[in-house]
Specification:
The protein has 323 residues and is of the alpha/beta class. 35% of the residues lie in helices and 23% in strands. Helix 4 links the parallel strand 4 and strand 5. The structure holds coenzyme A (COA).
Length: 323
């Protein structure tokens, strides 16, 4: 079961009006095409570990566990503070979780759901009773702020959940589903900076260390993958769309969320949306939305909850939880 969720964002805010000053874009265009009004952006000195630690400590407090109780840490991110070692090891040290194993999951936006699925499987295999799953990004570090097709979309943030064994009250993860299609990788990727094309001055000059995206193609693939994932979630949990009390989708674009809800025949008043406040925070987006839904009283224990996401890879995933 998901015993506690926490979230944190850097204090700095980049509004559509700010972007209007540096890009050929407008608040009206961004709101109409994406639903985004602002995003939180980390200061250069703010590390991923610093705000992930806040989210993790909040999740642990809500779950009633301490760092010493953690058997493992799974950290979903594409923007670790450094290439080696993992973000999970940095967080393990910051928390003082000295009993916990720790590793990263690289699955882009659905990374946190991949992490939840992996944690659930490890628990079933008796490899942990209390596992921290973090989804956090500093996407501002890989965004090209001269490209209006991507600069408007991304934000920074962190979310975390503590998973524990299911209890007798029915609160449990009911189904998980993951998928991928690497054939479409080049539609949304960072071409350089890996071992095939190590960082050089020329590569940085050509901005090959930053996100490149074919927006329209990604949009279509997103709607398809999100729809497929909602079908799989409902199927695997042995429920119907009517049984869903709340859907908390990846917050990439309001139009993608609306198309997914329409496909799943779930009314928009059962769908959590906060893309307006945070933009697309990749692996942090679902836990950030969960934390807000709980704070607003929209998500309560016992609710049938569908989580669904899509991202670079392409990758996609869904999880059904009796909250
Ligand atoms: N401001 C103003 N105009 C912009 C713009 C911006 N920020 N970005 C693109 N445009 C322009 C384009 O240049 C194009 O102009 P043209 O017709 O003169 O060539 C026009 O708007 C339409 O571009 P298009 O890319 O077709 O727009 P769109 O409706 O598909 O919206 C996105 C662009 C990026 C908002 C949209 O494709 C999208 O959200 N895609 C999915 C992205 C995503 O979710 N990625 C992460 C997945 S996890």
């Amino acid at each position: 079961m998901i015993a506690g969720v926490g979230a944190a964002v850097p204090a700095g805010i980049l509004t559509n009006a700010d972007l209007e000053k540096t890009l050929d874009t407008s608040d009206a265009w961004i709101v109409e095409r994406t639903g985004i009004r602002q995003r939180h952006i980390a200061a250069p000195t703010e590390t991923l570990t610093s705000y992930s630690l806040v989210a993790a400590q909040q999740a642990m407090a809500r779950a009633g566990v301490t760092a010493k109780d953690l058997d493992g840490i799974i950290f979903a991110t594409v923007t670790p503070d450094r290439r080696l070692p993992s973000a999970a090891c940095d967080l393990q040290a910051a928390l003082g979780a000295d009993r916990a194993w720790a590793f990263d999951v690289v699955a882009a936006c659905p990374g946190w759901l991949f992490g939840i699925s992996v944690a659930e499987g490890l628990m079933r295999a008796a490899l942990g009773d209390t596992i921290l799953v973090v989804g956090a990004e500093k996407l501002s570090s890989i965004t090209d702020y001269t490209d209006r097709g991507t600069a408007i979309l991304f934000g920074d943030g962190a979310g975390a959940a503590v998973l524990k064994r299911a209890t007798d009250d029915g609160r449990a993860i009911l189904s998980t589903y993951m998928g991928a299609d690497g054939n479409l990788a080049s539609l949304l990727h960072i071409p350089g900076g890996g071992s095939a094309e190590p960082l050089t001055e020329a590569l940085v000059h050509e901005k090959r260390h930053l996100i490149q995206m074919a927006g329209r193609e990604v949009f279509k693939a997103a709607v398809l993958a999100m729809s497929r994932s909602t079908d799989a979630a409902i199927d695997r949990a042995g429920i119907t769309a009517d049984d869903i009390d709340i859907m908390i989708p990846h917050q990439a674009n309001l139009r993608i969320i609306e198309a997914t809800a329409k496909h799943a025949e779930i009314s928009m008043n059962k769908v959590m949306v906060n893309v307006d406040r945070y933009g697309n925070t990749s692996s942090a987006s679902i836990p950030l939305a969960i934390a807000q839904a709980e704070a607003e009283g929209r998500l309560k224990p016992g609710m049938m909850t569908m989580l669904v996401s899509f991202g670079a890879g392409f990758t996609w995933a869904s999880v059904v939880v009796r909250w």
